[in-house]
C-alpha cells in the first residue's frame, strides 16, 4: 500500500506520539504521528526515519549509473549524495565524470561509456553539464567544441525525454487553472542535436547526397547557391526512432490518463515533419486507438503555431492550448521544440516576478523533473531539467533584455554559472537543489520498481515529499522561489543558501510521519527512540 493510500485509510488513528517531542526540536512545527491497529501485528509509530537510518541502510540489489557534471550543480550534486542518499541507501554507483575537463581529456569517450553503462544497468542519474560554445572552448582550452553530452546520451539510448513540473501550492501560477501538470515529451534523438553544421567563407554550392548501401543510384539535392559567406547544416532522423518516440508518447499518455498532442511544422517541412505526423497516426490507429477511447482520452496532431502563442511583452510565456484547460495533457514535441517549450513552461523567467504580481508558468526551472525513457520502458535516465549550460538557452531572453537593460541575466540556467562564479569568489549563493534531488529520487524509484524494492521506493517518495513540504509547509526556500512567491520584497530571513537548501529536506524528513506497518515489513529497519536524525 502506498503512503498516500495509508494516509487516506479510515483505520488510521492520529495521535500526538511521544517521540514527536524529540523531532519537534529538529523541526519548528508541531509533529503528528499515527498508529494503526493490526490484528497480530505490533503498533509501530513515532517520528523517525521511515525504513531507513544511518545504521541500517536500504540495500539496493543492482547498480545505478552516476553521471557527474559541472560548476554549481556539480557541487550540489556531491552534497545531495553525501547528505541525502548515501547515508541511507547502500547502492553500487557506477561513477562517470562528465565534467567538461574530463570529457576533453578522454576525447568525449567518457560520455559514450556512460551511455553504454546506462544501457547495461537500466538506470542512470545525471547532473547538469556544460555544452561548450566558443567562449567555453577558450575558457577551458578545449581540444574542440564538443557536442552536447545530453544529445550524445539520448542518441545512444534512443529514448524520449518527459518533463513534468514539480507543483508547489505556495508558488502562484500565471494561469490559476493550471491545477494539473503538463507533461512534455521531447524526442531525444537526432535533429539539431546531432546535426553537422558549418561556415562557408565564399561563393559556392551546398548540396546533399544520399548514397544507398545496396549499390543503388545516389540521390542529390541542391540546397543553396551561395553568393558570399554563410552557414549550412544537415540533420537527420530515423523511422525506428520516430516509431519509438510514438510508442513512448502513447504509453505515457495512457499511464497518466491524459490526452496526447503531437506538434510539428509539417506545413513547411512537408517531408521531414510530415514523417512524424504520418508515423504517429499509423501507430495510434494500429495500437492505441481503442485503449484511448476506453479511457475517454484522445490523440491529435497540431501545428506548433497552434500550440504555442509565444512571448508576451512582460516576458511570460503562454501555451495557447494549455490556457484553454486545467493542464493535464501530454505534449509530444520534436527534439528542439521539446527543449525550448519545456524550459519555457517551467520558467527560467522567474526573475521577472519582481516586476509583475505573478510569475509565469509553474515557477522555476528548478521545479522540473526530466526523465529519458527507452521505448521498452525498462531503461531510464533521470536528470535535472535545467540540463546543460548552452548559449542557445540565453537567446529567449534577448528581447526582454533589450526592453530593459536593468534586468539581470537569468539565475537558473544549466550548470548555474553565475552562482558558481560567486562561489569561486567565496560569496554565498542561494541555488535551488530541488530538480537535482528529484533526479536522484526518480532514478532510485525506477531502480526500485525494476528490482521490486518497496523500501527504496518509499524512501524516494518520502524525500520528494520532504522537499515539497520544506517549501509549502515551513516556508523555507531558495531565492528563485522566494522571488516567485513574494516578489522583490521577499523575506531574506526565510531564504536558504544552497547548502541549507540541501540540508533542509533532510531535517524535514526527520519529522516524517512514521507509518504503522506489519512487523515483517519493518524488520531490521525499526528504529528505537533516540536513534533517529541528528
TrEMBL record:
Gene Ontology process terms (BP): isocitrate metabolic process; NADP+ metabolic process; tricarboxylic acid cycle
Domain Isopropylmalate dehydrogenase-like: residue ranges: 63-485
GO cellular component: mitochondrion
Keywords of this entry: Magnesium, Manganese, Metal-binding, Oxidoreductase, Tricarboxylic acid cycle
One annotated GO molecular function: isocitrate dehydrogenase (NADP+) activity
Cross-referenced SUPFAM superfamilies: Isocitrate/Isopropylmalate dehydrogenase-like (SSF53659)
Highest rank taxon of the organism: Eukaryota
Record-linked SMART domains: Iso_dh
Cofactor(s) annotated in UniProt: Mn(2+); Mg(2+)
Catalytic activity: D-threo-isocitrate + NADP(+) = 2-oxoglutarate + CO2 + NADPH
InterPro entries, per database record: Isocitrate_DH_NADP, IsoPropMal-DH-like_dom
PANTHER family: ISOCITRATE DEHYDROGENASE [NADP], MITOCHONDRIAL, NADP-SPECIFIC ISOCITRATE DEHYDROGENASE
UniProt similarity note: Belongs to the isocitrate and isopropylmalate dehydrogenases family.
Name used for this protein in its record: Isopropylmalate dehydrogenase-like domain-containing protein
Protein source organism: Jimgerdemannia flammicorona
Amino acid at each position: 500500500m502506498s503512503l498516500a493510500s495509508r494516509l487516506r485509510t479510515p483505520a488510521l488513528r492520529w495521535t500526538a506520539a511521544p517521540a514527536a517531542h524529540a523531532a519537534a526540536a529538529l523541526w519548528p512545527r508541531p509533529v503528528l504521528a499515527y498508529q494503526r491497529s493490526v490484528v497480530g501485528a505490533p503498533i509501530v509509530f513515532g517520528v523517525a526515519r521511515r525504513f531507513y537510518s544511518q545504521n541500517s541502510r536500504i540495500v539496493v540489489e543492482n547498480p545505478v549509473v552516476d553521471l557527474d557534471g559541472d560548476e554549481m550543480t556539480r557541487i550540489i550534486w556531491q552534497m545531495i549524495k553525501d547528505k541525502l542518499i548515501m547515508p541511507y541507501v547502500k547502492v553500487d554507483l557506477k561513477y562517470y565524470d562528465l565534467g567538461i575537463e574530463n570529457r576533453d581529456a578522454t576525447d568525449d569517450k567518457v560520455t559514450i561509456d556512460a551511455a553504454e553503462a546506462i544501457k547495461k544497468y537500466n538506470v542512470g542519474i545525471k547532473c547538469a553539464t556544460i555544452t561548450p560554445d566558443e567562449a567555453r572552448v577558450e575558457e577551458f582550452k578545449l581540444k574542440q567544441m564538443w557536442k552536447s553530452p545530453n544529445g550524445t546520451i539520448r542518441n545512444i539510448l534512443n529514448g524520449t525525454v518527459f518533463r513534468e513540473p514539480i507543483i508547489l501550492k505556495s508558488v502562484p501560477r500565471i494561469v490559476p487553472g493550471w491545477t494539473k501538470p503538463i507533461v512534455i515529451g521531447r524526442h531525444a534523438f537526432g535533429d539539431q542535436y546531432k546535426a553537422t553544421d558549418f561556415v562557408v567563407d565564399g561563393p559556392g554550392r551546398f548540396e546533399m547526397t544520399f548514397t544507398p548501401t545496396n549499390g543503388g543510384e545516389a540521390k542529390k539535392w541542391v540546397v543553396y547557391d551561395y553568393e558570399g559567406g554563410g552557414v549550412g547544416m544537415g540533420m537527420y532522423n530515423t523511422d525506428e526512432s520516430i516509431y519509438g518516440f510514438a510508442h513512448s508518447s502513447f504509453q505515457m499518455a495512457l499511464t497518466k490518463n491524459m490526452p496526447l498532442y503531437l506538434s510539428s511544422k509539417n506545413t513547411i517541412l512537408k517531408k521531414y515533419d510530415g514523417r512524424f505526423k504520418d508515423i504517429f497516426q499509423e501507430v495510434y490507429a494500429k495500437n492505441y486507438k481503442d485503449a484511448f477511447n476506453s479511457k475517454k482520452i484522445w490523440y491529435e496532431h497540431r501545428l506548433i503555431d497552434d500550440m504555442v502563442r509565444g512571448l508576451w511583452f512582460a516576458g511570460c510565456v503562454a501555451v495557447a492550448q494549455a490556457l484553454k484547460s486545467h493542464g493535464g495533457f501530454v505534449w509530444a514535441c520534436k527534439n528542439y521544440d521539446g527543449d525550448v517549450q519545456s524550459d519555457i513552461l517551467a520558467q527560467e523567467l522567474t526573475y521577472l516576478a519582481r516586476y509583475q504580481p505573478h510569475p509565469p508558468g509553474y515557477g522555476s526551472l528548478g521545479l522540473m523533473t526530466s526523465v529519458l525513457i527507452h521505448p521498452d520502458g525498462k531503461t531510464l535516465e533521470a536528470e535535472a531539467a535545467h540540463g546543460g549550460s548552452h548559449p542557445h538557452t540565453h537567446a529567449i531572453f534577448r528581447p526582454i533584455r533589450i526592453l530593459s537593460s536593468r534586468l539581470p541575466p537569468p539565475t537558473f540556467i544549466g550548470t548555474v554559472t553565475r552562482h558558481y562564479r560567486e562561489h569561486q569568489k567565496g560569496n554565498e549563493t542561494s541555488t535551488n537543489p530541488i530538480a537535482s534531488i528529484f533526479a536522484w529520487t526518480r532514478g532510485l524509484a525506477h531502480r526500485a520498481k525494476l528490482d521490486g524494492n518497496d523500501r527504496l521506493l518509499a524512501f524516494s517518495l518520502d524525500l520528494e515529499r520532504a522537499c515539497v513540504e520544506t517549501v509549502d509547509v515551513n516556508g523555507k526556500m531558495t531565492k528563485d522561489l522566494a522571488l516567485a512567491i513574494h516578489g522583490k520584497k521577499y523575506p531574506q530571513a526565510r531564504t536558504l543558501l544552497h547548502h541549507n537548501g540541501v540540508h533542509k529536506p533532510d531535517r524535514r524528513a526527520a519529522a516524517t510521519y512514521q507509518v504503522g506497518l506489519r512487523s515483517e515489513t519493518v524488520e531490521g529497519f525499526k528504529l528505537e527512540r533516540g536513534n533517529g536524525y541528528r
